[in-house]
Amino acid sequence: MTSPRLYAVLDCAADPALHEHVARLEPEGAACLFEGRLHPELKAASPHVVELAPTDPLSKLWRGAGWGRSWGILISSRAGLPAVRRRLRHYTQAKLPDGTGPVLFRFWDPRVFRVWLPLVEPDDLGGWFTDIDRYIVETEDGAGSLRYGLKDGRLTVEPGPRPAAG
């Protein structure tokens, strides 16, 4: 069995400097969550799935300056980047409660994720955990993390520490 890898869904609109890191890691270590050819300015502000290495400058930047600033969410997965990206692309659009839409669903924003995932119907949770072991999201105050998993078909939420700055 392969060891889990750490990925991020990084909101490049949160900080203009983030896209430089993403561009450096493309295409092997990063991919835009949106499909197709995008205008360069739109791509630079789009969410990207990024494989994080502990010593990479992006990982260090996020643990230091970015944690608590809603830059995105972390994901633990044994799957490769293409599989994780494919899974997450299913959730970029949603219908509104009144049935209108689709609209852009910014699940990668920790302020959205923390509120929304606990409200997902149990029958729908499995899709969120296909190819994904755990989601790690900053707490509202940025002092710690919340770790979301799936056990026996039920959502688990465990508090955790803030990642150590590097």
Rg from Cα: 15 Å
Strand content: 25-35%
Give the structural class.
Answer: alpha+beta
Shape: globular
Helix content: 25-40%
Described by its quaternary structure, the protein is: single chain
Residue stretches low in confidence (pLDDT < 50, at least 5 long) are none
Tally the helices. Answer: 6
Distance between the termini: 29 Å
Instruction: Tell me the count of domains.
Output: 1
How is the main sheet built? 7 strands, antiparallel
Strand order of the largest sheet: 2-3-1-4-7-8-9
Order of helices and strands: EHEHEHEHEEHHEEE
Mean pLDDT: 91
Structure commentary:
This protein has one domain. The longest helix is centred in the middle third of the chain and has 10 residues. By secondary structure, the chain is of the alpha+beta class. It has a seven-stranded antiparallel β-sheet, with helices on both faces. A two-stranded antiparallel sheet has the order 5-6.
Features:
166 residues; alpha+beta; seven-stranded antiparallel sheet
